[in-house]
Design a protein that fits this description.
55% of the residues lie in helices and 16% in strands. By secondary structure, it is an alpha+beta fold. Strands 5, 6, 13, 14 and 15 form a 5-stranded antiparallel beta sheet that branches. A 4-stranded antiparallel beta sheet has the order 2-3-1-4, covered by helices on one side. Helix 14 packs parallel to helix 17. The model has no long low-confidence stretch (mean pLDDT 82).
């Protein structure tokens, strides 16, 4: 089962269990624990006095609001517009910046750097980190060079795993990383930058992964340089910019003299295979020994391949005369600096631009800026894409609206089946955007962002906000079925259900307080969810107490059981003013 399925199951299962407990264990415990007269304590009387006064004030306010219902409708649409505006103003990112208790320092040296060269710099970096260990902010430093494992060919990289002290005995990880970044910036021979480990996928990549594709690698390199220069000059909040295509590795280019080779009877295929076998290696066949298969690889003597002059000792056979011809008489060698790897993305030649972000600069805004910069300074044939954490952010952002709409549709269908009506669920679902505006406003005022955690909180608000409308609409329908007048039933249902609405809202908001006040590992993620739930439930409760009755008055007046609708029509006819007509005085014939 996928991780998303498990997260959804973890939300559904507690609700199912709590429902069973409310229907079975809670009545039994109430019958055993509650005693007559327990509700006459001073605390209960104080709560009763407070709630009774609140109900009286709410009833007077509701009666006034029902006479100004079109003003409430205008206010509702104004809140919808404000919700849309807040959604565009909030910064977007995949996950919030989390202090995970450890981070990694990536070290990149020049192409062709030796192990001894890198170890000198790794020792220097370790020495610069030692004061942080001495003052107790860092616990452990693990240094490794080169960065890769297994068969290593390049030694120009390394990394340092930094474990920090407990959250209560040090500064924020972002402050420590910023100070370390300043100290490592003065290293002349390597590039070193700290990267916080990602919460999903255990990635250690930089957050910005912007891909340029199409054309040749030479074209891509020119486009890359043009874009990086533009970003460095105009946006200093995008830092530590580099790419996965560095033309720093010394290489030899072999240019074949086709006319001379053809005259001597040497084919280009023969030259290529000769160089492949002698300088690289070629798998020619397999053989089986004791049930095991072994590859037969032909390769040249490595001891004679230490310099470009080794090509002078290579000979190729002419297919015309069968004689061996020196390769040096057929080719021309030239030195150039090239990349160690030629990368592709979605089967297209590509170069990935990687970068860090300054503190407080959201990933969504950075990616939007890079896309606009690419559109402005690069030719139209350039293909752009995202990789790594940036691609994860894009996919998560694209699924947000789908999840919200799907959640709202599912809730609406379930309510439609329960109420056996299409109007009553629609009245209840009007509370959802009222919860969204509170959550989004709280995120904006607290300096937080729209991310995968806040999106989970917004999906939860769909169910949490709908419960208030259910309490009012369901009880109003019961009173109407019992023969009570429409307006009287609506007001009585709203006032009577005020107490359970406030009780459930207060308990839900109280449950979010530990998420907001918590500290330590993962506190940033819990803060986002707690903020969304607390502010969303609070705003939904306040607005629902007035919007749902007004919407019920406007939309559900002629819905419900046939008897209730018939009585409503009879009431309106009886209360309508009677027209008095004066008979006409017609002249006698």
């Amino acid at each position: 089962m996928k991780a998303a399925s498990w997260r959804g199951f973890s939300c559904i299962f507690p609700v199912v269990v709590s429902t069973l407990l409310a229907l079975t264990l809670t009545p039994m415990m109430a019958s055993k624990i509650l005693k007559p007269g327990m509700h006459y304590s001073r605390l209960s009387q104080a709560v009763q006095w407070l709630l009774t006064g609140t109900q009286r004030r709410y009833q007077r306010a509701l009666e006034i609001v029902l006479t100004l219902k079109w003003l409430v409708v205008a206010l509702f649409f104004l809140l919808i517009a404000a919700t849309a505006w807040l959604a565009t103003e909030l910064p977007n990112e995949y996950t919030p910046q989390e202090d995970r208790g450890n981070f990694i320092i990536l070290v990149n040296g020049p192409e062709g750097a030796t192990f001894d060269y890198m170890m000198d710099y790794m020792d220097e970096i370790e020495a610069r980190l030692t004061p942080f260990v001495d003052n107790g902010e860092l616990e452990r430093i693990v240094v490794r060079a080169p960065r890769g494992f297994g068969n290593i060919e390049n030694f120009n990289s390394g990394f340092i795993i930094v474990n920090m002290a407990d959250w209560g005995s040090r500064r924020s990880a972002w402050e420590i990383m910023a100070e370390i970044r300043q100290q490592l910036r003065t290293l002349p021979g390597v590039q070193a930058f700290p990267v916080m480990r990602q919460g999903f996928g255990q990635r250690t990549q930089k957050p910005v992964q912007f891909v340029l594709g199409g054309g040749t690698y030479e074209d891509l390199a020119r486009w890359r340089d043009r874009l990086i220069t533009h970003v460095r000059e105009n946006n200093p909040r995008i830092t530590a910019i580099e790419s996965n295509y560095d033309e720093t590795q010394p290489q030899l280019r072999v240019d074949i003299n086709y006319e001379r080779a053809a005259a001597l009877g040497v084919t280009v295929t023969e030259i290529g295979r000769t160089l492949e076998v002698l300088l690289g290696g070629r798998n020619v066949t397999r053989y089986v020994d004791d049930g095991e298969e072994y590859d037969v690889i032909l390769e040249g003597d490595r001891s004679g391949q230490n310099s470009p002059a080794a090509l002078n000792n290579i000979q190729v056979r002419s297919v015309r005369s069968g004689e061996l011809i020196p390769l040096a008489s057929l080719v021309t060698l030239s030195d150039f600096a090239g990349a160690s790897t030629l990368n592709r993305f979605d089967r297209v030649r590509a170069i990935t631009i990687e970068a860090n972000l300054a503190d407080g600069y959201p990933l969504g805004e950075a990616l939007e800026y890079l896309q606009q910069a690419a559109d402005n300074v690069l030719p139209e044939e350039v293909q752009t894409n995202l990789a790594g954490p940036s691609r994860d952010f894009q996919q998560a952002s694209g699924a947000t609206m789908f999840l919200l709409v799907l959640g709202a549709v599912v809730v609406y269908l379930v309510l439609a089946a329960q109420f056996e009506s299409l109007i009553h669920p629609f009245v209840i679902m009007l509370t959802v955007p009222l919860a969204m505006i509170g959550a989004l406003l709280a995120l904006l005022l607290s300096g937080q962002s729209l991310n995968i955690y806040s999106q989970v909180g917004l999906v939860l608000l769909i169910g949490l906000a709908a419960k208030n409308g259910i309490l009012i609409v369901e009880f109003a329908n019961q009173l109407r079925d019992e023969g009570q007048a429409f307006r009287s039933a609506l007001i009585e249902a709203s006032v009577t259900r005020l107490r359970p609405i406030l009780m459930t809202a207060v308990t839900t908001m109280a449950g979010a307080i530990p998420l907001i006040l918590s500290s330590g590992p993962g506190a940033e993620s819990r803060l986002v969810i707690g903020t969304v739930i607390m502010a969303g439930v609070g705003s939904a409760t306040v607005f629902t107490l007035f919007v749902v009755p007004v919407a019920y008055d406007l939309l559900a007046r002629y819905s419900g059981s046939p008897g209730a609708v018939k009585r409503q029509l009879e009431e309106e006819i009886a209360s309508a003013p009677i027209a008095h007509h004066t008979p006409l005085n017609t002249p006698e014939r």
